[in-house]
Amino acid sequence: MLNMSKKALALLSATALLLGAAGCSGSAETTPTPAPAESTPVESAAPVESAAPVESEPVQEASNHGEPMEIHVGDFLGETFLYPVKLANKLGMFEEEFSKDNITVVIDYLGSGAVMNEALTAGELDMSFLGGQPTYSGIANGNGVKIITMATVSNTDPCLLVKADSDITEVSQLKGKNLAVNIGTDNHYQLTEMLGLGGLVEDDIQLYNLKGNEALSGLLSGEIDCMQSISPNKWQYILDGDVKVLANMSETPGRNNQVLVARQEFIDEHGDLIVRFLQVLQRALDYYEENTAECWDILAEYCDASRELMDNYMDDYDCTLGLTETDRTYMDNVYAFLQDHGMLDSEIDLDSIYDESFLIEAFGTTDCH
């Protein structure tokens, strides 16, 4: 038998793109200046008083004042759905935007939210992409970060999988069954949302702390009856013919997301660079929309992901920047779940954890959706 722990344990640029009402996408067209016409000699006229010279607005100096500087940003290497930062890095967009100010953007692939939180606390990261649970855990532990923007939203991932030949066809049939999930994470919260589709709550099922291939082995051996899975793994399992989808997040009010956070010290000292960082992400988003197939090739190689699977899941993720009331409501729900399960060390003032000023300065709005 698998060594499974039950749920009794304490259960988340270069282009400025100031678009006004147009939100956070698109670009202004420029009209080429016509070539000067051939001059024709004319009789000299009486001299006129010349207009006062127009003073040009000075270019604002970057907050590093030309001193060599590195901006360290935490990211997940294998997560293709955080594609704007990966594309901007791979296509040289960060270098194009920041090198003129002697600034280098370094993307640190640290693998997990817990490790990124440690690096944020230690000042080794200036910004990071995180899920809801690690974001709240870090804030509760005093790492001093603020949520700057949503970075990824999916209304379809994750999903519940059962064996391809399972007699289970409705979520309500999971009552009393063994389910596998990564306990204490956003996925755990999302599982409870999907259980609700069958009128079930956590106490109606037996929960085991398994994920990925370990959970799949338990499912195929019959030791568990259902597992939660997320792209791209879920699509590999489905296309292999081993499993079928019982339910997914699209049928619930919940969703899956990542946010971008920044340390307060970095905010205070280099807020201008955060604005420019967001604008580069928007450039990468625009490039993705116009060159999707090329970007999938880049991402598959960059993340060592299966190019064949990307047709199945990339459109499930929306990397539009923004911080809306809907975004906040979802994050509030994750927080309530974590609090109810005793997963946070302290309470958090939810009104104090956001800083939308950088979205406003970069794009003139917090709603780019």
Give the class-level CATH name of the largest domain. Answer: Alpha Beta
What is the C-alpha radius of gyration, as a whole number of Å? 25 Å
Structure annotation, total helices: 12
Proportion of strand residues: 15-25%
Identify the strand order in the major beta sheet. 2-1-3-10-4
- What is the CATH topology assignment of the largest domain? D-Maltodextrin-Binding Protein, domain 2
Number of domain units: 2
Element-by-element helix/strand order: EHHEHEHEEEHEHEHEEHHHHH
What gap, in angstroms, lies between the N and C termini? Answer: 47 Å
- What would you say the CATH architecture of the largest domain is? 3-Layer(aba) Sandwich
Q: What number is the mean pLDDT?
A: 85
Overall 3D shape: globular
- Point out poorly predicted stretches: 1-23, 26-58
Helicity, as a percent range:
25-40%
Biggest sheet layout = 5 strands, mixed
Number of strands: 10
Oligomer: single chain
Structural class by secondary-structure content: alpha/beta
In short:
The chain is of the alpha/beta class. The protein has helices at residues 83-90, 93-98, 113-121, 132-140, 186-195, 212-221, 233-239, 264-290, 292-302, 310-313, 325-340, 357-363, and strands at residues 69-75, 103-109, 127-131, 145-154, 159-163, 178-181, 206-209, 226-229, 243-248, 256-263. The chain folds into 2 domains: 69-153 and 255-363, Periplasmic binding protein-like II (D-Maltodextrin-Binding Protein, domain 2, 3-Layer(aba) Sandwich), CATH 3.40.190; 159-251, D-Maltodextrin-Binding Protein, domain 2 (3-Layer(aba) Sandwich).
